[in-house]
Prior knowledge:
Strand content of chain A: under 5%
Low-confidence stretches of chain B: none
Structural class of chain B: mainly alpha
Shape of chain A: globular
Number of helices of chain B: 9
Number of helices of chain A: 9
Number of domains of chain B: 1
Oligomer: heterodimer
Structural class of chain A: mainly alpha
Radius of gyration of chain A: 20 Å
Order of helices and strands of chain A: HHHHHHHHH
Distance between the termini of chain B: 28 Å
Strand content of chain B: under 5%
Helix content of chain A: over 70%
Radius of gyration of chain B: 18 Å
Mean pLDDT of chain A: 84
Number of domains of chain A: 1
Number of strands of chain A: 0
Amino acid sequence: MWQQVVQFYNRFASPKWFYQQSSVWVTWLSAVAITGALTGLVWGLLFAPADYQQGNSFRIIYIHVPAALVAQSAYIMMAVSGAAYLIWQRKMAAWIARAIAPVGTAFCLIALVTGAIWGKPTWGTWWMWDARLTSMLVLLFLYFGVMALQQAIESSDVGYRAGAILSLVGLVNIPIIKYSVEWWNTLHQPATLKLTEKPSMHPDMLWPLLIMIGTAYVFLLLMIVLRTRNEILWHERKRQWLSKVLEF
Amino acid sequence: MKLMLATLRRDAVLAARNPGEWLNPLAFFLMVIVLFPLAVAPEPDFLSRIAGGVVWVAALLATLLSLDMLYRADVEDGSLELWHASGEPLYALALVKALLHWCISGLPLTLLSPLLAVMLHLPDSAYLALFLSLALGTPVLSLLGGVGAALTAGIGGGSLLLALLILPLYVPVLIFAAGAVYQASLGLPYTGELAMLGAMLSLALALTPWASSAALKLNGLR
């Protein structure tokens, strides 16, 4: 079992293998992402019942919640790939970490903006200095910092390592975001969805949300694969295997 | 151990011979504090409410000013490589540097805090909270800042980048420290906030030198 894991990791860390296999993944991931987004959005925005208190404005959760979840997961993925690079020094790990950073930043921005749009009719204000909002904003700044550091250092190896160290140090913010609404009794409501409990939402509202969350993760994977393929194209541009692959 | 003491002594002598390096951030800190009553409002009631936050924001900025030079000279003149070659762990160097940085930035700020409390009309009940929050919080700033300084030491014009990297990490310290002062000024208990600051200090003391030493090793590869 363990040997298979190691074997898979070693294959995964080979740019050639990844580049050749991932063209199929791109097709599948985009197919799933497009179907999921169409189903989830049409169901959530048109057919799910309106909330008895918030009316139609609650429908923004179909974008907001998936984006916020993915923004945090993407940060963890970036830090873990960074750690993998620091430990095993496989270039693929660093390229994946680099590929994740802008995607995670975009999701973080989407979560903050949709939250503000939802907050205006519901809380009566665009922005509150609430624990969860503030820690999401800090997450955005952490993403900015990692990207700025990666860009500031010219030697790519040192840049990758510096970015990995910084993203690992910033990892302390993730549990703070997750538990902020439970530790501090603030404006943002606690999580409605919990793995351990029966959901308190009506199934007609819940299903589109679950579909959208799944879709957001598939989309994140798709973006990572596409951007990693770009990194491979750039960094391996002088390698023979790549010119052979590209000739066909 | 011997090398740690020698470095500490050398850096202390360097700091004593170049007082501008650490006095300028202190003067900056005082001036920022003076700007608030002038720019916002000089009423004692109002000042006493914002005093904790103002002192803490100024402390963050002053810490950032003196962080940039923490490792820069050592990277440029090769002392870092000698330390690396000596076989002593870089973990120890990171600890010594953070300690020294705290002695020339956080410690004077902490000692100045009663004066600032008077200037900003802080209620008597909050003097001790301000002093204790600075005493527990500023070492965390130095330790976390050490990681940023180590990451940016070899980059030209890295000081702005350093601020960008480090300020988000300072946010939890700022929230709890300013919270403690605010609670105390209302006469409420503030031991919970101080305990959180103490927890952050222990965590930073254990983990940040490790991250700094990983970052310092990168300078040899550059």
